[in-house]
């Protein structure tokens, strides 16, 4: 996974720089998301691996499936095809979204709780996390009935384990130290 990130990062940064300069972050975001989904299709995967096709033919067929991409987006796909990097599109799209979120000072946060959060709890949690991370927070919540109580919060690379099981594990660790 980290190798894919290393290979995809320069392409994601280049796409982001162009999109930001062109003031088209959402357009590029949609195009990369579409291309990522297309690249994961089994038939398209076979096409991308076909050694009998030139990179130009691969790019043309790929763009035909993707639909309406503007000139720079088409050029980006052609560059990826030329460098045999079309399979990296899911990783490129993910890294692009991270760069976009940083630029827009937003953060996607996933909250997994034992019970559904009330509107008041969601609002208070969103405000607290916005203050903690100094960003606008977009909260996505899910329910895991296997949790005894509390919640797990995932915000980028940060994971906050506020579950009962997590707290008991911390207590046991402290007592054994």
UniProtKB/TrEMBL annotation:
<comment type="similarity">
    <text>Belongs to the ATPase delta chain family.</text>
</comment>
<comment type="function">
    <text>F(1)F(0) ATP synthase produces ATP from ADP in the presence of a proton or sodium gradient. F-type ATPases consist of two structural domains, F(1) containing the extramembraneous catalytic core and F(0) containing the membrane proton channel, linked together by a central stalk and a peripheral stalk. During catalysis, ATP synthesis in the catalytic domain of F(1) is coupled via a rotary mechanism of the central stalk subunits to proton translocation.</text>
</comment>
<dbReference type="InterPro" id="IPR020781">
    <property type="entry name" value="ATPase_OSCP/d_CS"/>
</dbReference>
<keyword id="KW-0472">Membrane</keyword>
<keyword id="KW-0406">Ion transport</keyword>
<dbReference type="InterPro" id="IPR000711">
    <property type="entry name" value="ATPase_OSCP/dsu"/>
</dbReference>
<keyword id="KW-0813">Transport</keyword>
<protein>
    <recommendedName>
        <fullName>ATP synthase subunit delta</fullName>
    </recommendedName>
</protein>
<dbReference type="InterPro" id="IPR026015">
    <property type="entry name" value="ATP_synth_OSCP/delta_N_sf"/>
</dbReference>
<keyword id="KW-0375">Hydrogen ion transport</keyword>
<comment type="function">
    <text>This protein is part of the stalk that links CF(0) to CF(1). It either transmits conformational changes from CF(0) to CF(1) or is implicated in proton conduction.</text>
</comment>
<keyword id="KW-1003">Cell membrane</keyword>
<keyword id="KW-0139">CF(1)</keyword>
<keyword id="KW-0066">ATP synthesis</keyword>
<dbReference type="Pfam" id="PF00213">
    <property type="entry name" value="OSCP"/>
</dbReference>
